[in-house]
Amino acid sequence: MEPLNTWRDDTRLTHGGRDPASHGGTVNTPVYRSSTFIWPSAETLPRYLRQADDPHLREHIYGRNGNPTTAAFEDAVAALEGGFRSLVMPSGLAAIAGTLLALVRGGDHVLVTDNCYGHARQVFDRVMREMGVEVSYFPPLLGADIAALMRPNTRLVYAEAPGSNTFEVQDIPALARAAHAGGALLVMDNTWATPLFFKPFVHGVDVSIQAATKYLVGHSDAMLGVITTTEALYSQVRDRVRLLGYIASADDAYLGLRGLRTLGVRLRQHQRSALAVARWLARRPEVLKVLHPALPDCPGHALFERDFLGASGLFGVVLRPIPEVALHAFLDSLRLFAQGASWGGFESLIRIAHGQRAFPDGLPPGHLLRLHVGLEAVDDLLADLDQAFAQARARHPDTDTQP
């Protein structure tokens, strides 16, 4: 059979993490619910124990270190990302925290994009600072000029493209060059684009993180994270996250594998539908600005065009300022856009975008919302938003005429 790394992405999605001959001919890798694995003899035990030091060994000795189901998911994701190997984690936040705990020590300095995921910011502000790590935030569009912020003890630059809630697109290759020139690593959250729409290691990233809960699982039914690294960093990251007891269940890894099989077709529909909704919203009088990286007026759009292969279904929108009662009428009357904290599943979601970051310069003051466009028919989604705007106008007739 042709090697996985020579196939195109849609073929990798179909065949990655699958080896029917090793599992009794089953099309899907089975769920291995096992805490304990039996080694053949006392003589073989040292080889099994060496797996922690040799990244090329894949012997299973205890469930906390993984099993055939989690290994299959890791292999499939690594092939898509273009990294050396992946590590399955119990959540996206665990992937963030585990990566930082593996790579950063007290006395180090880290540079963090100011538009990062809110809970990642809490890890930096609380866990990292309590460890004695110096944390500085930089404007997301700084690009190569980040070099001026590098210090002798800068160990890591943390990027997210596009950023949470405000969706600026960062110059990842420029950040990589500046980080590497200063002796630092570049870590990136690649959840929004997935490895189908952004190839992190092609652009100089050292560690790629995903909340696989989102698009990789795709069905809103599993908590899962994944870390993918270069070969040089794999053993260091693996040893630390497994020492801390981080691992995902075989059941959730199985759901991740199931989600990968349809990721390509799902993501392409998310992209088409979200762009249609975003363009419709941009024409609405109630809307001040749509924050979608594929639209020309989104900050960093030229970088998106240069580096990304597509757009997913998540974007932001700024509504004109209206009383809270009208905003709540809009949100509460939606039938297809449910209010929820996650995204990346088959269903459409909306929420008020809360975060610890100040409202960015250049954005008009208003109500910042985050939308995830699911797999429903676009016309039904637009009708849902239209009737919700009507409900807001009923509570506040000037909803669409505010200066």
Brief write-up:
By secondary structure, the chain is α/β, with parallel strands linked by helices.
Distance between the termini: 63 Å
Task: Classify the helix fraction into a percent range.
Answer: 25-40%
- Would you state the CATH class of the largest domain? Alpha Beta
What topology, given as strand order, has the largest sheet?
1-7-6-5-4-2-3
CATH architecture label of the largest domain: 3-Layer(aba) Sandwich
CATH topology value of the largest domain: Aspartate Aminotransferase, domain 2
Radius of gyration: 22 Å
| Total count of domains | 2
Q: What is the N-to-C order of secondary-structure elements (H for helix, E for strand)? A: HHHEHEHEEHEHEEHHHEHEHEEEH
Structural class: alpha/beta
Q: What's the total helix number?
A: 13
Low-confidence stretches: none
Oligomeric composition of the shown chains:
single chain
> What about the largest sheet?
7 strands, mixed
Average per-residue pLDDT, rounded, comes to 92
Pfam families: Cys_Met_Meta_PP
InterPro entries: Cys/Met-Metab_PyrdxlP-dep_enz (IPR000277), Cys_b_lyase_bac (IPR006233), Cys_met_metab_PP (IPR054542), PyrdxlP-dep_Trfase (IPR015424), PyrdxlP-dep_Trfase_major (IPR015421), PyrdxlP-dep_Trfase_small (IPR015422)
Modified residues (N6-(pyridoxal phosphate)lysine): 214
Catalytic activity: an S-substituted L-cysteine + H2O = a thiol + pyruvate + NH4(+); L,L-cystathionine + H2O = L-homocysteine + pyruvate + NH4(+)
